Amino acid sequence: MNVSQNYNDKFQFQFTGNENSSIVHELSTSFTFRNSEDLHNILLSAAQIEHNKVRESAINLFELERVRYDQEAFRNKIREDEERVRLEKEKAIEAKKNQESLEIVKRPPTPPPSAPALPLDKNNASTLLSPNASATQQLPLPTRPMNSFPDRLTTQSLPTGTFSIPKNFESSSIDMLNSSPFSTKTTSSFSHQPITALPKVDTKSGISQTALSNTPFSTVRQQSNEPFSSQPIKSSDRAPLGPTQEHNPTVAASDPSTIHDQHFVKQSLRFEKLDRYYEIHRNMKNLRKSIESQVDEFGKPTSFRISCKKGRREITKVLGQLIVDSRNTAIVDKVIRQLIDSLQDKSEIVDASLFTLKNRRAISTAYLNEDGADMNSDKLPSAFIYLIGAFCKAICAQLVNEAALKPQAASPIGILAARIFSDPRFHWRGDSLIDILISKMFKICPILFGVCGDESTHEGRVRIGWRKMNGKFISDQAHFDRMSGVAAGYAAISLRDFSRTRWKNPYPPTNYWLTLSAIVNTPSKEVCSTQYVVLKSLIEHSFSRFIKFYGDMAIAALQAALVEFPMRGAENSASVGTLRTLCVSLQKDHGLVLG
């Protein structure tokens, strides 16, 4: 800072420092007369200049910030307007789709063609002249040829699956399944129609074509002059269910709202020995309690009890690690290892016939698996049966907890169950022990086996498996979620393809067919909302495998389940609405036309 006096004897100063230097600092270091009045005047002038400089800088920054804020607010307003326009467009598109779906659902079905006049037969003239003749002479369900599918569901996309009939399949069982609940009703005038989309049958099984024509796989009966038998099924054909669980074939056949033929109604009664499932479930519970209550003389758990519970925890843990769309090989190996180890523990044995539907005969030749366990004996290790029960219980728990919310999760569970129960090392006298798993499913969801009940009564809810917690029934949504999960798992287990393996299918697709038949053929007075929920879960993610096994007959069955069965429900029912929506979804997403 250079200081000089002008002609008015006033000091003038010229700043010589750098830009970062303070004027006050320069002045304070340039003068030695620090207490003079002139110095203080100079310092005040310098401070005023510094103040003005800072003020102008602050004002400039404020103006810049205000401009930036205005620009940001303008951009936010533009984004909000664009988002509002986008949401309005999406709502308009969604409303249009919903309107189109409602129009498709409300569209009346195409009336079937008039039935040809049939000559009266002396044997069934009285039936045709009865008041209920119109109900028994309804038109058959149409069967669609595979080449009538749209492009998205072609014949190539549905490969022909083979269904092998086991060698020990009894002829009485074939007679029992004498007609398909979804097959077309024909007489001699229809004898020239071809048999379409029949599943292949293993010729090694020794089943003749005559017997095959009576199975539920045939769509057209062979020409015969004998009328269809309308006699009710004998009580010996199945175990009694009690007065509240027994279906009346005569009432069901005379109900015009049921499916077209009395033979369809008979199919709904083909689940035999339902009471036996209760016994198997009770025997498993008694075995589990006896093992888990074992203590030694000092009141401590026995080593056998500790070993069994350790295996149970391991199986439960690995089942929670299943991954969708994965082979899950490591998990399968862990379950197999636990079961094989339990077969070696022969400290306690139990009668194996307590856990099967029928008491099986011993195989003529000695049967030992590769680990040396005798699977032909009357009794099996208790630890093995205990772990099989734990495996089944864990499967049902996974289905209830995961498949209810994500139906795709049922697929790996079904694959694992089929893999374990088809393993010959775990077969007792040549057949699997899957009856234990089915008894557990029957206990949770009796709807799958043709049991029905009134949901508005306490007894009816108990019959259809409505769960209680703390003495009260769970909510409707919780109940429907449980039923949906178990139904999805049931479909995943029963619709497995064993055509590429030598192992026997532990639970063949005929059981899935019988389940659909039992639900669809329920009399109108006994139909409940749970049946619609179960039916939706059975079909939603398994219809393609069902069509793979049964072809055109599966399409006719789906038509009866998704088109005709909902017509018998209340229009304002949410469960009925979901079934109708599924029908529309199959047509829209997969090109499967059922209406």
TrEMBL record:
Q: Subcellular location, in the record's words?
A: Nucleus, Nuclear pore complex
Q: What cellular component GO annotations does this protein have?
A: cytoplasm; nuclear pore cytoplasmic filaments
Q: For the region Disordered, what residue ranges are annotated?
A: 98-164, 213-258
Q: Name one GO biological process term.
A: poly(A)+ mRNA export from nucleus
Q: Which UniProt keywords apply?
A: mRNA transport, Nuclear pore complex, Nucleus, Protein transport, Translocation, Transport
One short Pfam name that applies is GLE1
Biased-composition ranges, Polar residues, are 123-140, 153-164, 213-234
Q: Which family does it belong to?
A: Belongs to the GLE1 family.
This protein is called what? Answer: mRNA export factor GLE1
* Originating organism: Uncinula necator
Q: What is the lineage of its organism?
A: Eukaryota, Fungi, Dikarya, Ascomycota, Pezizomycotina
